[in-house]
Design brief:
Tscrpt_reg_LuxR_C; 5 strands; alpha/beta; five-stranded parallel β-sheet; Arc Repressor Mutant, subunit A; DNA binding; DNA-binding response regulator; WalR-like; 206 residues; 9 helices; phosphoprotein; Rossmann fold
């Protein structure tokens, strides 16, 4: 499967380095580049990439606002933040805006490639160095932070349904299912659907 990627960063040298890294693989294709949030919205709308690698600090519209606007507008791909910021506020703001993943710019090249593939497959790639920012200050009730739709998706995963079947059952697109799953994974602290299904069976008893 070919994964189409949009690179968003205000530094040409960063975009060039990422383009070279991704283009050296057989399954990742860079379909476009953007230097700011406004350009990212236009490019994502016309190119419909599977994954957007998004910087945070950029002139004009920053990456967090661009991510929120993009997803509010119906974009069905996955957004992964790639930034130098590891503070709690930016991490939580980015994920709240709808990003499914968060990586630091000093990550190993293979970690970036793995994150792009994971995001395209519906997983939530989070750099271990910022994962602590996602830990709640108190222990909530299991599933308390899940939206009604996220619970529906998680219940169907626990029943063993594939993304395409879940999409058909709920009347949504398969990409939307992946976005919901990414959010679910972050909220319950897992990285794959098998672990999510086991978590649901243990914690969401009807």
């Amino acid at each position: 499967m070919t994964i189409n990627v949009l690179l968003v960063d205000d530094h040409p040298v960063v975009r060039s380095g990422l383009a070279g890294l991704l283009s050296a693989t057989e399954d990742l294709v860079v379909v476009g580049e953007a230097a700011d949030g406004e350009a990212a919205l236009a490019s994502a709308g016309s190119l419909a990439p599977d994954v957007v690698l998004m910087d945070i600090s950029m002139p004009g519209m920053d990456g967090i606002e661009a991510t929120r606007t993009l997803l509010d507008g119906g974009f069905e791909g996955a957004v992964v933040m790639l930034t130098s910021f590891s503070d709690r506020d930016r991490v939580t703001d980015a994920l709240s805006a709808g990003a499914v993943g968060y990586l630091l710019k000093d990550s190993e090249p293979e970690a970036v490639l793995s994150a792009v593939r994971a995001a395209a497959s519906g997983h939530a790639p989070i750099d271990p160095r910022v994962a602590g920012a996602l830990l709640p200050s108190r222990t909530p009730s299991p599933g308390a932070d899940l939206s009604a739709r996220e619970r529906e998706v998680l219940d169907l995963v626990a029943e063993g349904l594939a993304n395409k079947q879940i999409a058909r059952r709920l009347g949504i697109t398969e990409r939307t299912v992946k976005v919901h799953l990414g959010s679910v994974f972050r909220r319950i602290g897992v990285t794959d659907r098998t672990s999510a299904a086991l978590w649901a069976r243990d914690n969401l008893k009807n």
